[in-house]
Design goal:
- With about 260 residues, the chain is of the alpha/beta class.
- It has a single domain, classed as 3-Layer(aba) Sandwich (Rossmann fold), CATH 3.40.50.720.
- Helix content is about 45%, strand content about 15%.
- It has 8 helices and 7 strands, in the order E-H-E-H-E-H-E-H-E-H-E-H-H-H-E.
- Strands 3-2-1-4-5-6-7 form a 7-stranded parallel sheet, with helices on both faces.
- Strand 1, helix 1 and strand 2 form a beta-alpha-beta unit.
- Helix 1 crosses helix 8 and helix 3 packs parallel to helix 4.
Length: about 260
């Protein structure tokens, strides 16, 4: 259902080709937002954009490597010049790998930190430099970062990923303090076990590392969730939509759990 708070406003979503990013893009588009669909894989971005267009929404696909500062600035500049000011920035792009801490490599560390933490930093800074120069009048922009419950509690075989998501939560809070004076809200969402392609890979990795079957690992995940089901990408997308709406105007610097009760702080 279209919403005046979103109607015609521009949202830039990173990692929007699949999983949570795709669900966020479709959710915001259903509210009436115009979506700048970015992903490292342009074909995936085009696929999500096509879905939005089929539902009579407005979407523009673009390739974006969030770890490349030159490309980040170029894409955001192109978006701003071609589509107008960004009202909603959704930093969703993320990756994971798994291993025992003693077997992690510098490459593992850099890959997770570069995409999950530095990527949020680069995109946010580039967007903010333009946001702070633009006269939004009463419709101030909002930034939502996708962290993880691993940004609040440690996760087995994910020391490097956990560090990157703790960084996202901390960066969100620090940024929120600095830009509050300009009326810009900055929050993050901490999903739990989300049913995505990334999770399917993690199930297989964890099964090998723990000498269990994939089904045993999946049941182990479920046993930790009070609501008794795994998170759907749409569960996350609805909370992001709320954080972009006027209903969250008095919220900033928050790390909102979408974990089915697994994490309650």
């Amino acid at each position: 259902m279209r919403d005046k708070a979103f109607d015609g406003k521009l949202a830039l979503v990173t990692g929007a080709g699949t999983g949570i990013g795709r669900a966020i893009s479709l959710q915001l588009a259903s509210k009436g937002a115009k979506i700048y669909v970015t992903d490292l894989n342009l074909d995936w971005a085009k696929r999500t954009a096509s879905e939005i267009i089929r539902m009579r929404g407005n979407a523009i696909p673009a390739k974006l490597d969030v770890t490349n500062s030159i490309e980040v600035d170029s894409v955001i500049d192109s978006c701003w010049r071609g589509q107008g000011p960004i009202h909603f920035l959704i930093n969703n792009a993320g990756v994971s790998t798994m291993n025992h801490i003693w077997d992690l490599t510098e490459k593992d560390w850099d890959f997770n930190m570069d995409v999950n933490a530095k990527g949020v930093f680069l995109v946010t800074v580039s967007a903010l430099r333009r946001m702070l120069k633009h006269n939004y009048s009463e419709e101030k922009p909002k930034i939502v970062n996708i962290a993880s419950m691993a940004g609040k509690i440690p996760a087995m075989y994910l020391a490097h990923y956990t560090a990157s998501k703790f960084a996202v939560v901390g960066f969100t809070k620090a940024t929120a303090i600095e830009v509050a004076q300009f009326g810009i809200n900055v929050n993050c969402v901490c999903p739990g076990f989300v049913k995505t392609g990334m999770q399917e890979r993690e199930l297989e990795w964890e099964a090998k590392l723990s000498n269990k079957t994939v089904d045993q690992v999946r049941k182990g995940y479920l046993s930790q969730v009070p609501l008794g089901r795994l998170c759907e990408p749409e569960d996350v997308a609805k909370v992001v939509s709320f954080l972009c709406s006027h209903d969250s105007d008095y919220m900033t610097g928050q790390a909102i759990n979408v974990t089915g009760g697994q994490v309650m702080f």
